[in-house]
Q: What sequence folds into this?
């Protein structure tokens, strides 16, 4: 098959879609498929597959530029697989390609824009609300979704929410994210340290509720916090730490990858992820794969069997977050023992095989 992978970002840029797209392109190419990647930004050196770049500009102008590129490289493609509903989905619709159109969703564009504006509702509650942006989001997203032949979700969690919100969806399926475990440090039974060491790892964006975590730490003098990542809230988070006089107990670390990321899991007692909603919490699985206990919002996309060794609960306020961290501190040995139980990995070759099988089925219809 000739497969076009349409992504907003691609390495060397950092982010979930960039990693996913490159890894999938690699596996599909090894399986004998012809792969072309289209992305925004500067020209990227291509290897065993072609990578085409579209210059960034004003949103509408770049959508048309992206659509023109799609027409050129995808005119005889069997499948075009999009990794973004807006930045890639709209150009695919504009392109008028005859290829089968598949959209992968592991997030929600309009809900994330709502939370960027200090919105406080989780994904399900937001869609059920009378918020004007939710109304607009439902209309635009529904229009986009109905113009694809198939929707791939990363979790049943988001698939179920969309099934309730959008009544005329195309066919859907779930292809879970990869969880590569080959590079990790050995599984271990963590022993509580003094002081107790908390870890956050992810994008510094509003829906992650990092300020609430910092405020909770300000009320626990026996706790240290490490924040690993980057994002638009970076400056405001640093100012909050300074204002609360927590410079000696909260430290910022640039994004880590590979073995470095797994090794820092071993230096902490608890990964804390208090997001409003966490659709595809891969970091929680990575931490869990080396035995680090995890505290995560109950509004997450983890399947039931992956939640062992994790505390999934209501973390909607500083008080609730504070109470749960203290509860885990007091009974740490029990959650650490549960977290030390082995979980199964999921390779990129499995993800690619499921994707290719889906594409073949859609093309045969």
A:
């Amino acid at each position: 098959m000739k497969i076009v992978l349409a992504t907003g970002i691609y390495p060397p840029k950092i982010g979930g879609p960039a990693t996913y797209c490159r890894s999938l392109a690699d596996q599909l190419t090894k399986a004998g498929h012809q792969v072309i990647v289209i992305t925004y930004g500067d020209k990227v050196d291509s290897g065993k597959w072609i990578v085409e770049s579209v210059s960034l500009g004003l949103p509408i102008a770049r959508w048309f530029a992206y659509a023109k590129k799609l027409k050129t490289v995808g005119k005889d493609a069997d499948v075009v697989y999009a990794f973004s509903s807006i930045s890639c989905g709209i150009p695919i619709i504009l392109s008028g390609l005859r290829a089968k159109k598949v959209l992968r969703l592991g997030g929600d564009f309009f809900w994330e824009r709502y939370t960027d504006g200090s919105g406080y509702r989780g994904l399900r509650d937001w869609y059920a609300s009378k918020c004007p942006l939710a109304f607009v989001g439902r209309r635009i997203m529904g229009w986009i979704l109905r113009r694809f032949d198939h929707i791939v979700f990363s979790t049943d969690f988001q698939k179920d929410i969309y099934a309730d919100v959008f009544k005329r969806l195309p066919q859907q399926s779930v292809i879970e994210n990869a969880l590569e475990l080959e590079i990790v440090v050995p599984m271990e039974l963590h022993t509580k340290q003094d002081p107790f060491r908390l870890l956050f790892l992810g994008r510094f964006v509003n829906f992650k509720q990092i300020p609430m975590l910092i405020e909770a730490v300000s009320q626990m003098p026996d706790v240290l916090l490490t924040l690993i990542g980057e994002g638009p809230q970076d400056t405001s988070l640093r100012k909050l730490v300074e204002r609360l006089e927590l410079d000696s107990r909260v430290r910022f670390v640039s994004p880590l990858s590979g073995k470095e990321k797994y090794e820092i899991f071993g230096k902490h007692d608890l990964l804390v992820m208090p997001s409003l909603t966490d659709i595809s919490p891969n970091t929680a699985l990575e931490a869990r794969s080396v035995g680090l206990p995890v505290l995560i919002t109950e509004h997450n996309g983890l399947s039931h069997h992956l939640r062992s060794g994790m505390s999934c609960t209501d973390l909607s306020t500083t008080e609730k977050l504070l109470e749960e961290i203290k509860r885990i501190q007091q009974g740490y040995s029990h959650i650490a023992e549960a977290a030390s139980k082995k979980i199964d990995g999921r390779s990129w070759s499995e993800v690619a095989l499921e994707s290719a099988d889906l594409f073949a089925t859609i093309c045969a219809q």
Observations:
- The longest helix spans residues 348-364.
